[in-house]
What does this fold into?
Amino acid sequence: MIIRRLFIANRGEIAVRIIRTCERLGIETVLGVSDADRQSAAARRADHVARIGPAAPATSYLDIEAVVRAARESGAEAVHPGYGFLSEKAAFATACEAAGLVFIGPTPAQLAAVGDKLSARQHAMDAEVPVVPGGSAATFDEAVALAQDIGYPLLIKAVAGGGGRGMQRVDSPADLAAGIDRSMAEAQAAFGDGRVYLEYYVAAGRHIEVQVLGDGTRTVHLGTRDCSIQRRFQKLIEEAPAPRLAPELRADIERAALRLADHLAYRGLGTVEMLMDCASGRFYFLEMNARIQVEHPVTEAISGLDLVAAQIAVAEGQPLRWRQSDLRLDGHAIECRINAEDPTRDFRPSPGLVERARFAVGAGIRVDTHVEPGTEITPFYDSLIAKLIVSGTDRAAAVERLSVALGACEIRGVASTLDLHRAIVAAPEFVAGGVTTGFLTEFRP
It folds into this structure.
């Protein structure tokens, strides 16, 4: 089928990003908005706007019935979920299909297979992809025994989790009970599912991921990304390709990601996330995100592809246009997530009115944002202000361009992570490349 009208079940910069591709493809857009987003940049740019509920996400962007009803009434043929919110909910994809709407993403069965982290681990093992030692425990006594086998420190993770929510590090047996309680409570609040599991904690690791794309019969990969610079398990800076990886190791990671995608007969865009143990040189499967990623622009920069357009093409039933040998990855790209947070106060969110928003422009610079002077950063949603993406012929050129571009950006009215990004990019460890996930914890700008 050909999609002529698309309903966007999301907000912020990703909504603007999807609209931009639809404009190029000649697809009419309908944006589902909460009451808080009726005057947003995305709402002004969309062809049509449909109210889905009050400001609170639970009664708007997370309300499956309200979103599906608004999409049907809008006359759209398809729904793009973006990232976050309902993007990885099998129940949402099922509801869309039951309503006669094309869900732009994997099948409900694939979403269920990898949305549950324990199920995803099993699928990875079935595809002969190494997994981090760990497992689930039905009782506290089982958790104590499992923790003893894994060893400390360890991680408690939400089965239905993502974005670092429901994740707790535990350093000793005395902290296990409190860690499980905190993780279960946060997981229940964030995902409506309090189940957790335990996993070996890699003290010095790198977060490496592979972008995959499939049409249900064939899959390709679009190279690696490094997302190791994180705060509270949430990414701040991402780059593609992952720097300072031996060619053999990079190829092994890419092949492992493809094995999992092929095992699932994957349809659509997805990301296979790995953890590389710097001490041993081994890598382990972490999770698979069955949606477009926040950091997808760095892959677009080195591949020359429009990944939203690729998602739409697959959803329309088109076979992949490329074989692996057709794809060329050139240069290097880096993305900084500029958030409305105060790094000097433990990254406390900083809602408020943006008085000034100035972003860099120029060759090799891209800014994805929904923020402009007068935009209100509300306490209801993610604190992302903008994504600054730079590219260059190699990593050194990209780092130099990023340093200049960050210097040209200015945010006033709310606290932001701009100064932190400037300090990180100037740090010798970052310039050298290949920092671990512990970098930001130890970094003192």
